[in-house]
Amino acid sequence: MKVTFVVLADAANITREGKLNILGIFDSIQAQQFPVTHPQMQLVMRFEADISEAGKKKKVEVQLMDDDGKKLFVLGGEFAFGPGRPGEAIGSNHILTVNMMKFEHPGDYEFKILINDELKAEVPLKVLQLMPPVQ
């Protein structure tokens, strides 16, 4: 199982037909004062596997780390792909909504996606201090 696509976005959804819609991809946020609470962001991921992995449970974990290596949150669970067709990859889109995320200070943050405790993808997020306008 691998992660073939991952981004941070303002909004995303998956249609009834399985289409993935993404709005407002970003890699940084700005604030004038800290701590700051970001109201909502969505981590959009696509997992793929070959047919031999169909039905096999995998441990999936998402972590958000600050630039000191501190884990701000960890979310984990199990996932298994449904059946696939021989010779074709099995794909699955997932959206993790993060509400009211508090950032204590500006810096380089990173979402880490682990499958069976193996790091498969990283998504950087810069949290920047906005300077007040010069008068």
Provide an overview of this structure.
With 135 residues, this protein is mainly β. It has a single domain (2-129), classed as Sandwich (Immunoglobulin-like), CATH 2.60.40. The protein is built from no helices and nine strands. The chain is elongated and about 65 Å long. The mean pLDDT is 93.
Give the beta-strand count.
9
CATH architecture: Sandwich
Any idea of the CATH topology?
Answer: Immunoglobulin-like
Query: Percent range for helical residues?
Result: under 10%
> What amount of the residues lies in strands?
over 45%
How far do the termini sit from each other?
54 Å
Taken in chain order, the helices and strands follow as EEEEEEEEE
Rg over C-alpha atoms, rounded to the nearest angstrom: 17 Å
Task: Specify the structural class.
Answer: mainly beta
Shape: elongated
Q: Give the domain tally.
A: 1
Strand order of the largest sheet: 3-9-8-5-6
Average pLDDT works out at: 93
Quickly name the level 1 CATH class: Mainly Beta
Query: What is the helix tally?
Result: 0
Largest sheet: 5 strands, mixed
Low-pLDDT residue intervals, each spanning 5 or more residues: none
Topology readout:
Blueprint: E1 2-14, E2 20-26, E3 28-31, E4 36-49, E5 58-65, E6 71-79, E7 90-103, E8 107-115, E9 118-129
Parallel strand pairs: 3-9
Antiparallel strand pairs: 1-2, 1-4, 4-7, 5-6, 5-8, 8-9
